[in-house]
Design goal:
alpha+beta; Alpha-Beta Plaits; eight-stranded antiparallel β-barrel; 7 helices; 9 strands
Length: 221
């Protein structure tokens, strides 16, 4: 069963993160809205802010939702009330639906007890072709798996942007890595083997960003 990723990245409309938390929990996190989203196929809703020492602005915000029903996703977000509520959270936003990259290696590994940090690294860029990208990506992912796990890797998922009906398959590529160790993550990303494969994978310079869960209680599922 394919699981689709909705990534919404943007800047916050409220003046403070605490104000944003309250707005989020009263809109996206309201029990009726949560129930509606889940009934239409929203399996997971997680929120993130830039990681410490990140080059991102403090006002940036990220939502990652996993859906197993793209029609339900479209139905939910076509609701004017949902769009209005999103405007209360984000001053500007870039919502993109991503589909699993067929044949691209990935993994999900359990976290040992007590390893509670969660750092999310995103990579977004354009590949030259899906076939070439698949070969490079899988060689890199498989070759570095043991080293990545030692450094604190938890999961690796690859996606392509969902194209409109009858449009050519998109070459816009998106990778989501989850880590339990920020320093180990940094060491792996500086590994020369990773750097060579990373440069070969993309047609141009991709964008990268690192995120963590914000403090306080945010409604998630």
């Amino acid at each position: 069963m394919p699981i689709y990723l909705l990534a919404i990245r943007g800047t916050l409309a409220p003046d403070t993160l605490e104000d944003a938390r309250k707005v989020h929990n009263e809109t996206a996190g309201a029990p009726a809205n949560v129930a509606a989203a889940r009934s239409l196929g929203d399996l997971s809703h997680l929120v993130y802010t830039p990681a410490p020492q990140s080059s991102l602005g403090a006002e940036e915000f990220l939502i990652l939702d996993l859906w197993n029903n793209p029609e339900g996703l479209n139905q939910f977000f076509s609701n004017p009330a949902v769009q209005e509520q999103a405007g209360l959270i984000f001053a500007e936003r870039d919502p993109v639906v991503w589909t699993p990259a067929d044949g691209f290696a990935g993994y999900h590994l359990p976290a040992p007890h007590g390893k509670n940090d969660r750092i999310v690294a995103l990579v977004r860029g354009t590949v030259k072709s899906r076939d070439a990208a698949r070969s490079i990506h899988n060689s890199l992912t498989d070759g570095l798996l043991n080293k990545a796990r030692l450094a604190g890797a938890l999961s690796h998922d690859a996606y392509f942007r969902m194209a409109p009906p009858d449009a050519p398959a998109s070459l816009e590529f998106f990778v989501v890595d989850v880590w339990m160790d920020g320093s180990g993550m940094g060491e792996l990303y500086q590994d020369p083997e990773y750097g060579r494969g990373f440069q070969e994978l993309f047609a141009g310079q991709p964008t990268t960003s690192v995120w963590t869960h914000p403090a306080s209680e945010w409604v998630e599922w």
